[in-house]
Amino acid sequence: MPELRHDAISGRSVIVAIERAARPFVFPTAPASGTEPDDCPFCAGREEMTPPEVQRTGDGAAGTEGWRVRVVPNLYPIVGGAEPHDPTGAKAFGVAHGATPIGGAHEVIVLSPGHEASFASLDDAAAVEVLTVIRERVRVHLDAGHAYVQAFINHGKAAGASIAHPHAQVVALDLVPGAVDAAIDRLATTDLVARELTDARRDDLVVVDGPAPAWSPFAAWVPYGLRVAHRSTRARVEDATDAEIRVVALGLRDALRRLRAALGDVPYNLVIRTAPPGRPAGEFHWHVDVLPRTTLVAGFEEGTGILVNVVPPELAAVRLRDAVPS
Ligand SMILES: [Zn+2]
Fold it and tell me: How far apart are the C-alpha atoms of 178 and 106, rounded to whole Å?
């Protein structure tokens, strides 16, 4: 019997409908990556193909090989494009009547020189370094006066990645998105992340335990959706200590390895949820959502706003715990 569940943290409702899983084509498990590295602008040795880099870890001068993690402006930014770059001539249209110009910045963080790498394949030091660089870029953009910074990883074409080479993105905005404001409101008086983790332990939904556990949310929106958070109740990722960044990075990496072991190299979105700076954040608790994209959001979801998850989170947790990471 399908069940309606409510995700208190996101405010979304989900129908957990295992019956739907019997349909064919529920898991179009095309590999997440697929493009050839021949003309990849993020591979080592092709540094001239990106805009001038803004940060790196590792060795070598800017624009040369030797880096481990490399940050460059996004050539096709959502916000904050350099004025001269207008390959489609779209800027000739100006700002439409009734619209508001939106400023910001959009960067790519190349996770590894290796084209076939992914967050799941990173060793401990590399995984920690990647999340440390993400925290650093969030700090840089907030220090520059932007109102909010969204950090995320789109892994695989079906999850929105246009380049297969593993990369994260940070988008700094000159406004706080309404969805973020709403999340702060939901967690104004109760740390719902800590509460969900407590419930997850009771209900046997924890997938990777430790100081930064990964668990299957009771109302996961998508099959095998995961949530990862440090047990501390810090509101903002930019305030996370090195020790916290380390355990969250490793918890995430281990959760992604289990996902890969259970399902193969499925596409996913990894989204960092954090509170905006400079204002009270109530009991908000920064965390990471991992959303495997094995099903489509389609007409029912669009019309009703109710998501449909065909794999009960209880079952997903068992399968992910039983998976043997390589
Ligand atoms: Zn590449």
Answer: 19
| Kind of pairing between the strands at 226-228 and 67-73 | unpaired
Query: 111: CA distance to ligand 1 center in Å?
Result: 10
Could you list the residue range(s) of the whole structural domain that residue 212 is in? 5-77+102-322
What CATH code is carried by the domain that includes residue 152?
A: 3.30.428.10
Instruction: Give the per-residue pLDDT at 27.
Output: 47
Q: How far is the CA of 325 from the centre of ligand 1 (A)?
A: 24
Ligand 1 centroid to residue 126 C-alpha, Å: 17
* Number of separate domains in the chain: 1
Report the separation in Å between the CA atom of 109 and the middle of ligand 1, taken as the mean of its atom positions: 13
90 three-class SS: helix
pLDDT at position 21: 63
pLDDT confidence of residue 32: 52
The structure's pTM equals 0.92
Residue 33 CA neighbour count, 13 Å, CB half:
17
pLDDT tens for residues 163-174? 999 999 999 999
User: Out of 28-37, 85-94, 124-133, 178-187, which region has the weakest mean confidence (pLDDT)?
Assistant: 28-37
Is 82 a member of any domain? no
- Spatial distance between the Cα atoms of 233 and 214, rounded to a whole number of angstroms: 15
Instruction: Say if 91 falls within a structural domain.
Output: no
Inside any domain, residue 112:
yes
CA distance 137 to 109: 9
The alpha carbon of 22 and the centre of ligand 1 are apart by a number of angstroms equal to 37
Q: 94 in a domain, yes or no?
A: no
